[in-house]
Amino acid sequence: MAQRLPVYLLLDVSASMAGEPIEALRQGVRALQLELSEDPQAARTAWVSVIAFGSGARQLTPLTALSRFRAPSLEVEGTSALGAALRLLDRCIEREVVPPREGEAGDFLPMAFLLTDGAPTDEWQVAAGALVGRVRLVACGAGARADMKTLRELAPDALALNSLSAGALAEYFSFVSARVRETAGREGGGEIGWRN
Question: What is the pTM assigned to this prediction?
Fold first, then answer.
């Protein structure tokens, strides 16, 4: 089996995302699929999963080849259970990602793109610690209520979007696409490695 680049989208669907923001999220996931599909290397190697988190976390789409991926329905509900999302991500990686073994390369180190507009409503530190070395996490806070302090603890280079507008979220998903295409294009995965 060819090496895969697992890409997990962790999307905040809490009540504060109602209206334009949730619709922009839906459009962003569809646009991401289209952009990645146009890049031959990304189309070959990227496998995508969607995890939504509100009062809890659910994997809406298991890790799926880009050619078979369909954007899931995103519905607004509850609060921002970031810890639940990180714990679910850990379980998904354990279940879905093939680690390297003797004589076999396994999958590339997974990438996870976290987007939230608020502050976590549950304990997240232990779950974040369990993911160190198992995933390349890119965090993004959108809008004025995003807890950037927490996001920078998760990922020091956390991004900040000034708003939850359709335009701002479209730019974010273009950024995600560029990062995935760049990573997929590196020969042999480049600097993508696993902890021992």
Answer: 0.94
